[in-house]
Inverse folding.
């Protein structure tokens, strides 16, 4: 959208370096060398496997390596016999679309261009397009739902509903998963002449648009593909939603259809009103968007400044990008998740390209050589901390620098492309880059598709958008309009955020957010131009307290892993499930509570099954604290919450701390922990088989082992004996219970907790916790 021609070498020369005409050249060479190292390693050690394992120097072949759960759904055995698209393999519809279909289409477009220019590729007979079409047809069964929202997974050979497909039971999908099809599917329709793909992608977008929260104009993170109800109602611009917004904007650019821009503009206004608190991007409730639902940001949101550049909204783009840069300075790379005070929340770094992508867009928009230096720092860090003999390895934890045996394909498809383009003047490129739009996986599709191809049958989007237009609805404002007489506007903006993460100068976001209530009550909307900034002193303003997550102490920022340790036979302490803690209730990290977990007992007073037991409760529908109070009142002595999202697990998803509702939680005194659904399934399976299972809830670092465990188990045996004797002696005196955090999780308590969560569901709104 910004098409200024900038002489990179000259600008670089204006920057810090004196000898920089050659600096960009050297960097370009370095980036090519890095790409060769990464791609060459893949070809040498991994091809035809799906991905390279850069530490083992071999390929990752699905089924031959330990299953990594959902991550593996992005692998399709696609290169097993060079390329087969009909393997009996369940793949992610979203990932296969953006990685494989997008890759085939982008490659076809380039091959076709070379062929047309004469010389090279004269042998090419649209083979890649034919493969793309076949793959498109293999993805189509996923759209066989009454709503039109696609299933998240499909079996490439058997589709979704075939008994052999091993998929089709899923009921939910993420917003980005359903809303990131239009670029590839429309391109496929227009290149192949078959409108069916574009029709399906448009229908899915129509549903998401219709199901947006009409008051806030925000969407949630996960939606039910059958009844179109939101399953997770938190709203942000990162994981789960990100490329839905990206594709609305880019669908307008690629297809020239105003409906996508209109929708994007309306969502964008909402994002700027509720989610963007420069330099932060928060997550809020779609129904109650003045409430922030978590105190951390995920690294996927780093693409957003780039999208803001496409929108022409440079100021917040510069602000957020600067914040991200400071985080990378502090931690070398963007951690997968980091707190609003820029501490590590989840230390993994998967070599994600989003920060490089935004850096590229900002440089092209501003021409400020500062962004070349940012790019240079990305290159240096990759070489210093991720380069290994067989490629580049993801970082398991930015705090320790340990590597992971993983190099995702987006590292090749996106990272090097954005870095190379950052340092290359567009006149040096073999194509006019402004004639193309990048898919979310950085594959190039030509914007000529909107005009040179006949419109597809049935590609009219059915859901109208009412809107007000202004000067910038369809065009980007020029720099002079945005920043009159200030050629160093970018620096001026950045300077306010210079010391964001510096010691002793931590940035403190506003604990109170003032939001004009009117837009929530009225359907009237304004097309975004300059976002109406939140004013702190404003007549008629509605003051809403952000859940006090944004100003907390260092200890609270770091989520301390907890565990649920199964100690009764046959587990004997060997089954340990990683769990997340709660910000309310009994603090399990306090030494005085944990030293002798079996000594502080609570009496059982009453015949209710739940009493004296640790309860299991399913997450969802209402807030954690509502369930916590209910279960506490019923006599439970602790609660294990279990995630309701199928397949979630503590390896792939960062632990988080369950939070209260903003009001005092002093009345809640029980211990609470949270298990993702895979870990939860281990526990419920154990309960099904053994009915009573003794568990400890405790911080991971104090997990029992060795002599302590033996001692506990000895006492446990004694306790069990006493219990057996007691059972033989009806009406005998009750034995002391095992303590506040070591107790039985029984099938009875499961029953009680299930009931509890059901009744808790009905009386409050959706769960505010992430
Ligand atoms: C890429 O696969 C795509 O950009 C996707 O939209 C989200 N991010 C990953 C890489 O981090």
């Amino acid at each position: 959208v910004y098409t200024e021609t900038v002489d990179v070498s000259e600008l670089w020369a204006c920057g810090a370096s004196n000898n920089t005409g050659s600096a960009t050249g050297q960097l370009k060479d370095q980036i090519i060398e890095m790409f060769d190292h990464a791609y060459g390693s893949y070809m040498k050690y991994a091809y035809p496997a799906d991905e390279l394992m850069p530490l083992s120097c071999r390929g990752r072949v699905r089924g031959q390596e330990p299953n990594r759960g959902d991550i593996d759904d992005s692998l399709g055995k696609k290169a097993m016999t060079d390329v087969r698209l009909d393997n009996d393999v369940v793949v992610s519809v979203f990932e296969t679309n953006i990685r494989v279909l997008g890759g085939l289409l982008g490659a076809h477009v380039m091959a076709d261009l070379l062929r047309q220019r004469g010389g090279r590729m004269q042998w090419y007979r649209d083979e890649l397009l034919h493969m793309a079409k076949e793959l498109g047809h293999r993805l189509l069964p996923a759209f066989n739902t009454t709503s039109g929202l696609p299933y998240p997974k499909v079996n490439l050979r058997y589709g979704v509903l075939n008994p052999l497909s091993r998929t089709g039971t899923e009921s939910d999908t993420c917003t980005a998963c359903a809303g990131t099809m239009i670029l590839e599917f429309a391109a496929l329709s227009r290149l192949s002449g078959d409108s069916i793909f574009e029709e399906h992608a448009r229908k899915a977008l129509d549903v998401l648009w219709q199901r947006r929260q009409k008051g806030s104009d925000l969407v949630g993170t996960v939606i039910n593909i059958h009844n179109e109800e939101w399953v997770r109602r938190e709203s942000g611009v990162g994981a789960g939603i990100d490329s839905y917004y990206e594709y609305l904007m880019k669908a307008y650019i690629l297809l020239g259809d105003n409906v996508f821009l209109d929708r994007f503009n309306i969502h964008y206004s909402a994002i700027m009103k509720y989610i963007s608190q420069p330099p932060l991007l928060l997550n809020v409730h779609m129904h109650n968007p003045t409430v922030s639902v978590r105190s951390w940001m995920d690294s996927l949101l780093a693409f957003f400044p780039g999208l803001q550049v496409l929108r022409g909204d440079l100021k917040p783009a510069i602000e957020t990008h600067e914040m991200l840069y400071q985080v990378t300075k502090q931690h070398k790379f963007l951690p997968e998740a980091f707190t609003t005070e820029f501490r590590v929340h989840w230390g993994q770094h998967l070599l994600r390209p989003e920060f490089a992508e935004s850096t590229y867009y900002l440089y092209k928009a501003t021409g400020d050589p500062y962004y070349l230096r940012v790019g240079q720092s990305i290159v240096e860090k990759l070489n210093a901390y991720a380069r290994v003999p067989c490629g580049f390895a993801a970082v398991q934890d930015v705090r320790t620098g340990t590597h992971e045996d993983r190099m995702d394909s987006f590292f090749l498809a996106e990272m090097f492309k954005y870095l190379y383009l950052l340092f290359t003047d567009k006149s040096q490129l073999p194509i006019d880059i402004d004639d193309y739009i990048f898919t979310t996986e950085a594959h190039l599709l030509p914007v000529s598709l909107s005009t040179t191809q006949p419109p597809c049958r049935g590609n009219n989007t059915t859901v109208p958008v009412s809107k007000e237009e202004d000067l910038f609805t369809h065009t980007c404002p020029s720099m002079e309009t945005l920043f009159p007489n200030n050629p160093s506007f970018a620096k001026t903006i950045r300077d306010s955020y210079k010391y964001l993460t510096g010691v002793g100068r931590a940035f403190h976001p506003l604990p109170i957010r003032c939001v004009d209530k009117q837009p929530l009550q009225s359907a009237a909307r304004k097309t975004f131009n300059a976002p109406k900034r939140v004013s702190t002193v404003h007549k008629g303003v509605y003051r809403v307290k952000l859940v006090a997550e944004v100003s907390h102490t260092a200890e609270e920022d770091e989520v301390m892993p907890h565990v649920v340790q199964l100690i009764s036979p046959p587990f004997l302490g060997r089954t340990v499930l990683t769990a997340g803690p709660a910000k309310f209730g009994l603090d399990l990290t306090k030494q005085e509570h944990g030293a002798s977990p079996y000594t502080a007992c609570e009496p059982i007073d009453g015949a209710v099954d739940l009493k004296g037991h640790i309860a299991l409760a399913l997450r969802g529908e209402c807030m954690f604290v509502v369930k916590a109070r209910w279960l506490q009142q019923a006599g439970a002595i602790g609660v294990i919450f279990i995630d309701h999202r199928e397949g979630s697990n503590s390896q792939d998803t960062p632990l988080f701390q369950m939070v209260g509702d903003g009001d005092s939680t002093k009345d809640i005194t029980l211990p609470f922990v949270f298990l993702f659904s895979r870990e939860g399934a281990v526990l419920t399976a154990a309960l099904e088989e053994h009915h009573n299972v003794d568990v400890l809830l405790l911080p991971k670092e104090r997990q029992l082992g060795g002599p302590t465990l033996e001692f506990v188990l000895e006492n446990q045996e004694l306790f069990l004996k006493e219990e057996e004797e007691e059972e033989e002696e009806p009406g005998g005196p009750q034995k002391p219970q095992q303590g506040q955090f070591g107790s039985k999780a029984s099938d009875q308590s499961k029953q009680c907790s299930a009931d509890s969560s059901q009744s808790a569901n009905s009386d409050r709104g959706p769960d505010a916790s992430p």
User: Anything to note?
Assistant: The chain has a mean pLDDT of 79. Residues 591 and 702 are 10 Å apart (CA to CA). The first strand starts at residue 51 and ends at 53.
